[in-house]
Design goal:
The chain contains 4 helices and no strands. The protein has helices at 7-16, 24-31, 41-52, 64-71. The longest helix has 12 residues, at 41-52.
Length: 77
């Protein structure tokens, strides 16, 4: 389940640095379910690894549903 906020809104969010005062879990809760990347990739990737408490390979992002399920506690890899 991915939500689209649109390219213009994603760029606006990225420029605002909205993630700077959030926990890794809060970052992932938004970004993992958003179609457009709204922050630097390395920020999201680091937050994802911390939130899932494991290394996350970039190829895993090709199937976000699996990561979403794991994040929501529905599946443990």
């Amino acid at each position: 389940m991915m939500n689209s906020i649109g390219e213009a809104k994603a760029i606006e969010l990225a420029n605002s640095k909205w993630w700077e005062n959030l926990t890794p879990r809060e970052i992932v809760q938004f970004q993992l379910f958003s179609k457009e990347l709204c922050m630097p990739f390395d920020v999201f990737h680091e937050a994802l690894e911390k939130a899932l408490d494991r290394s996350v390979w970039t190829h895993e992002l090709a199937k976000p549903g699996i990561l979403q399920s794991e994040f929501l506690g529905e599946e443990k890899i």
